[in-house]
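TA notes, week 10

Several of you asked for a full example with nothing omitted. So below is the full record: structure tokens for the whole chain, then the designed sequence directly under it. When grading your own attempts, check the secondary structure regions first.
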């Protein structure tokens, strides 16, 4: 039956597992205490901590945390790197340390809910670090923003040029339309005499019609003279 100390250690390990961004497992067979201490210090610079743990305790803590995929990696002397920062930076540190300490071997790991075999975990060291990738992304975004700004300025300039050309065209069109408007305004004045002539003819006709009964009066006068 496990004692209280082991139960507490398993609980602490479970919290560290759940709080880490990733886990990288190494075999440290042959490393001295001084070399392991040096490795721990180098990993602190990239926000990671290295712990030499008994496989049985690590396996129990991982299972309690819902990670059963680490069972196959927990054999031989194991040291676990708990990654709180950039996993690529930690993998690079471990790879550099393996060149200095050939007995240090990356056995695998766990990241983003999936286990990593030795090859995949080691390949992380060949990727670009988070800082480099963010720098490249920032450069790309800056380039795209500059390009978009240049396109906006070019479009605005083109619009203003078209607007100025339209303004210059307006006076010429107005000047061409003015004589036509004046001719249209003068046309009724030239037709006015014809209308006056028609009105005069009509008045003359009315006047002649009114004077027509005059001969009838002359005949009546003549008849009256004969009777007398």
């Amino acid at each position: 039956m496990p004692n209280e100390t082991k139960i507490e250690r398993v609980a602490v390990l479970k919290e560290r597992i759940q709080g880490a961004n990733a886990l990288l497992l190494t075999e440290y067979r042959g490393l001295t205490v001084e070399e392991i201490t040096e490795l721990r210090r180098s990993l602190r610079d990239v926000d990671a901590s290295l712990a030499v743990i008994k496989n049985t305790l690590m396996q129990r803590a991982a299972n309690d945390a819902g990670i059963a995929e680490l069972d196959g990696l927990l054999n031989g002397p194991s040291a676990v790197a708990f990654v709180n920062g950039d996993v690529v930076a930690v993998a690079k540190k471990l790879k550099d340390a393996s060149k200095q300490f050939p007995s240090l071997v990356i056995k695998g790991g766990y990241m983003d809910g999936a286990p990593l075999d030795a090859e995949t975990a080691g390949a992380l060291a060949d990727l670009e670090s988070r800082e480099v990738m963010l720098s490249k992304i920032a450069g790309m975004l800056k380039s795209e923003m500059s390009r978009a700004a240049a396109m906006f300025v070019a479009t605005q300039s083109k619009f203003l040029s078209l607007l100025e050309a339209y303004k210059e065209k307006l006076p010429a069109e107005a000047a061409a339309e003015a004589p036509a408007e004046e001719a249209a305004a003068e046309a009724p004045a030239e037709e006015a005499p014809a209308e006056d002539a028609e009105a005069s003819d009509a008045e003359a006709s009315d006047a002649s019609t009114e004077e027509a009964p005059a001969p009838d009066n002359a005949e009546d006068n003549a008849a009256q003279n004969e009777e007398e």
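Confidence is low (pLDDT under 50) at residues 189-199, 204-228. Use that as a sanity check on your answer.
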